[in-house]
């Protein structure tokens, strides 16, 4: 296997054993980027010399017998809304191309603490919102990888790095993971600090990650979690041990629920894929129509997102007319039209959603849900795709995991989404591992 194709878990083990150097792995990833990124455009900033210096430092620590972190020597891509002291952070906007933070964001600090090599900054849509980027889908350059974590998802799919981080306010981790055929995970709200990341919505913003295996996704998330007094959503109590959950066995076969949610408007391929999963699981899946409140939750997510977006970026040149396209202009106008009363009513929906799901997972291990309406949109459609399949769960702060299990038209990937209970992230990974095994074809005798 070529080095760039190694899983994060295998590469980390080889680096610890001394059979692989971080320098060699980083060189392999940089060569892969040089080979394929001219066709994909996943990177907003890349400094090969800087990355190799980090890798050399990680190799030196290992040779000196120093403690090694969970991500020691692993190349990682960082969405270009997370502040980095040694790299610019342009927030996907032409107004901020020269923006150079003075310090790292909390997520980047966690990556460095775990021994990761920060390769560079991956492309995001403008201000991590709705305007599509120029990044192409590695499976077919006519298609988008989605947004707003476009470069992180595309970079993982193209083999540029084993791990990457992104963010989700609507569906910006799980949806591009679905479109790009990779794993994407948004943990329970408050698990990962947002300090030093672009704040578009203090109510909804979450940090998430991408990888090529389920185990790698757990490995990355564990390295990122922790309490941070600077983030009001962060909570001071023990966090789920996700990798431990991944490696554990469920005491009984998991129970699932599939909710028919009006407004999801799935394509024929995605509808068929979801039916196939439900059929395969048989009596382990209960199926019900979604309650009417779900439509209110979907509407509340948009209200909160646009209202807070406008106020968080008030006066920022990035939302000036000369720096925005028609897509973003429409969302800005929507946010400007949201009254304080309408916003207040939407915020109440957050508490209602949290309350609704508080005991929901006493009966079910996970909700089965499409991770997108179908395959990725064509670049010519000038959209990042609809986040409707994530909005309810993001509003409620639930952990959501995309599994790259399906394919649709033109062999483009689509994902299955699993939704778990708040702070039951480890249980969700345990369930996901069981599900992947249950859905895999049996090995021939």
What does this structure look like?
By secondary structure, this protein is α/β, with parallel strands linked by helices. It has a single domain, classed as Amidase signature (AS) domain (Amidase signature (AS) enzymes, Alpha-Beta Complex). The protein is 39% helix and 14% strand. It contains 14 helices and 11 strands. An 11-stranded mixed β-sheet has the order 1-3-2-4-6-5-10-11-9-7-8, sandwiched between helices. A hairpin with a 5-residue loop joins strand 10 and strand 11. Helix 2 runs antiparallel to helix 3, helix 10 crosses helix 12 and helix 10 packs across helix 13. The chain is globular. The mean pLDDT is 97.
Instruction: Write down the overall mean pLDDT.
Output: 97
Number of helices: 14
Write the CATH architecture name: Alpha-Beta Complex
Distance between the termini: 26 Å
Features:
445 residues; eleven-stranded mixed β-sheet; 14% strand; 14 helices; 11 strands; Amidase signature (AS) enzymes; 39% helix
Summarize the entry for a quick read.
This protein is an alpha/beta fold and 445 residues long.
